[in-house]
């Protein structure tokens, strides 16, 4: 694996972890504010934020798969033929 590929993997993993943390924090904030505000709480905004974060997490998963396929292909391997165990 080249340095560029390694750096890309590391950056992608950092982004994924940051998004997972943001998702946890949004859920915590939503819980606290919805309890405090009751019916005045803008739940639709928080649903939209959760959807946006989920889309970003899906993006990181797709990019991780794409990067893995490129790394395997450059090493002469086919992605579907590699077994993990």
Give the gist of this structure.
The protein has helices spanning 3-37, 43-74. It is an all-alpha fold and 85 residues long.
Structural class designation: mainly alpha
Distance between the termini: 21 Å
Strand content: under 5%
Order of helix and strand elements from N to C terminus: HH
Averaged pLDDT, please? 88
Biggest sheet: strands, sense, closure?
none
Low-confidence stretches: none
Rg over alpha carbons? 18 Å
Domain tally: 1
Q: Identify the overall geometry.
A: elongated
Helical residue percent band: over 70%
Number of helices: 2
The number of distinct β-strands equals: 0
Structure in words:
The protein is mostly helical and 85 residues long. It has one domain (3-76). It has helices at residues 3-37, 43-74. The mean pLDDT is 88.
List the helices and strands and how they pair.
Elements: H1 3-37, H2 43-74
Helix pairs in contact: 1-2
Question: Which terms summarize this structure?
Answer:
about 80 residues, mainly alpha, 2 helices, elongated
